[in-house]
């Protein structure tokens, strides 16, 4: 659930970037919606998960940067009139910096999600390994407790090996015959 809330926050951030100079009131609404999403994600996050804390912290920092940008845009008159104005140039520079920071945040977020998936997969493999080890131990215990099962397993193993050797000899002979007479 937390990851879904954070994805929604990222969507709101990209919408914020698009409407910031066109419609400041809409941008303010998006900022407030993002704040609410992040508060919900904070309440849904686990306290002992350090990765979750770092991810959530980066979202909060991005929200603060966007709020500061919003304040600057509103103080400069909410729209850019031309590149001659020093304030407008600074605002544009801030926009470029913010876009770079957003792209870095997105890269970090994607990497963090991949790491979360990899850790979950690793835990699943470890669990499966323990289950399979348990099954193997039980089978070995049963094989040792009943003597004739062990003998049957040895005979089937030797028959398998004999069959493999016979098949490999037959296939190699046929392959050689094919090359000689073709």
TrEMBL record:
GO MF term (any one): SNAP receptor activity
Entry-linked PANTHER family: GOLGI SNAP RECEPTOR COMPLEX MEMBER 1 (PTHR21094:SF2), GOS-28 SNARE- RELATED (PTHR21094)
Cellular component terms (Gene Ontology): cis-Golgi network; Golgi medial cisterna; Golgi membrane; SNARE complex
Organism: Schizosaccharomyces cryophilus (strain OY26 / ATCC MYA-4695 / CBS 11777 / NBRC 106824 / NRRL Y48691) (Fission yeast)
Signal peptide start and end residues: none
InterPro entries the record matches: Golgi_SNAP_su1 (IPR023601)
Membrane-protein topology: Single-pass type IV membrane protein
Protein location: Golgi apparatus membrane
Chain segments annotated as coiled-coil in the UniProt record: none
UniProt-listed GO biological process terms: endoplasmic reticulum to Golgi vesicle-mediated transport; inter-Golgi cisterna vesicle-mediated transport; protein transport; vesicle fusion
Keywords: Golgi apparatus, Membrane, Protein transport, Transmembrane, Transmembrane helix, Transport
Region entry Disordered, spans: 1-57
Transmembrane segments: 164-181
Protein name: SNARE Gos1
Biased composition (Basic and acidic residues): 20-37
Xref: Pfam families: V-SNARE_C (PF12352)
Family indicated by similarity: Belongs to the GOSR1 family.
